[in-house]
Structure formats: structure tokens, C-alpha cells
Amino acid sequence: MVFVEPSREVLSETLLAAGPDSPTLCEGWKTKHLASHLYLRERRPDVGAGLLLKPLSTLADGATNRRAARVENSVDYEQLVADFRAGPGRLSPMRIRSLETSVHLLEYFVHTEDVRRAVDRWAPRALDPEYADALWHELVKRATLLYRGMDVGIVLVRPNGPRHVAKRGAMSVAITGEPGELVMHAHGRTCHALVTFEGQPDAVDLLERSRTGLPDR
């Protein structure tokens, strides 16, 4: 099944429900900044590259802040979300199915939760089992990259049995959680991921003091 477009819809509805000035888990960003980021990353290659290449990160942040500054009222915000919801142009490489899933699936899930979990009271969504499986498969593909900076080995474990060695080490920690929670932890939302750790106390301590994910939002 294809989950990118439904995920885009859920993210769009979550942004609209929150309004332009709600908090997010992205440091320094309100929802209007997050919506701007989502819109620009699909339409400006330099902004997309700035998420991965540190020399371009200032350029990407500047573009995002300028776009967010243009949101002066709810109508402006609703149009921005509508533009994101419409997706990239027909000729954009972002429309290629295999690339679309690789680029967007985890991003959309994480940013939906960045809005949902930025409030005092939140609960995890009940995910369709096939959607959860899709998140797991994409996470497995990039887990080594997301945990590359760890000083301990990392084993990702689903409660129903499947596990994946993301990083080998002399000491290892098993991180157990549902796929969505593992995705959040791997992308740096460690304080907002419902996961448990199993391993030597020193190894768990190292993990808890380390930063996971890519150096972006």
C-alpha cells in the first residue's frame, strides 16, 4: 500500500487544526515555520540540501524564516498548508514513487507528531498495522545513519518480535517500542518517544546522553 499521500493529508490536517502559532518539537519553530519548511523542501533544492549539508543550513533556515514571516493571519497560513498539501509539481523528482516513499514517509510521520506531542497532554496514535510495518521498513533502511554518532551498539526491537541491529558495539542497548515510537527516538525526539531500554547501565547512560538523528529539524 502507498502511505505517503495519506500521511501528507494527516499532517496537513494536524497543521490546520493547530493554527499558525502553536508550538512544535522543532526547536525555535512554531507551526508556521514547520509548514514553511515542508513547503520549501519540495520546491527549492537548496533548502532540501541545507537539511543535510551544514554549509547550506543557514541558507535553508533563512528561507524558512522568511516564508514563515509572510504568514500574517490564518488565511495566509491556510494557503501555505494548502500549497504543501498540493504536493510538488508533476515533473518534480519528488513524484517518483520509490523516491517519494524514501524521502517523505518518515518525515511526514515525525512532523505530524512534532505538532501533536508539543502539548502537555498527548497520546500515541493507533496506527494501521500495514502503516506501522512501512514505517519499520523505512527506519531499518536508515537506522545506521540515524544512530551513527552513538558510542554504544543499538538494537531496535518491536514488541511483536522483529529486531534490527542498527549499530554494533562492545556494549549494546536494545531499544524497544512500536515502530512509530522507534522512529521518533531515532529522529532525535528522545524525550517524546515511548520506548524502553535494556542493557548495561553504563551503556544506557551513554545512549541517553547522546543525540540521535540527522543534524536537521
Question: SSE layout and pairings?
Answer:
Blueprint: H1 4-18, H2 31-41, H3 45-50, H4 57-69, H5 74-86, H6 97-116, H7 129-146, E1 153-157, E2 163-167, E3 172-176, H8 179-186, E4 196-199, H9 201-208
Largest sheet: 4 strands, mixed
Total domains? 2
Q: What is the average per-residue confidence, as pLDDT, rounded to a whole number?
A: 89
Taking all Cα atoms into account, the compactness measure Rg is 17 Å
Gross geometry:
globular
Q: Helicity range of the residues?
A: 40-55%
- The stretches of 5 or more residues where confidence is low (pLDDT under 50) are none
Question: What percent strand?
Answer: 5-15%
Query: What is the string of helix and strand elements?
Result: HHHHHHHEEEHEH
Number of DSSP helices? 9
The strand count comes to 4
Quickly give the structural class: alpha+beta
Give me the side-by-side strand order of the main sheet. 2-1-3-4
Intertermini distance? 27 Å
Please provide a written account of the structure.
The protein has 217 residues and is α+β, with helices and mostly antiparallel strands. The protein folds into two domains: 4-116, no CATH class; 144-208, 2-Layer Sandwich (Nonspecific Lipid-transfer Protein, Chain A). It has helices at 4-18, 31-41, 45-50, 57-69, 74-86, 97-116, 129-146, 179-186, 201-208; strands at residues 153-157, 163-167, 172-176, 196-199. The protein has a four-stranded mixed sheet. The radius of gyration is 17 Å and the shape is globular.
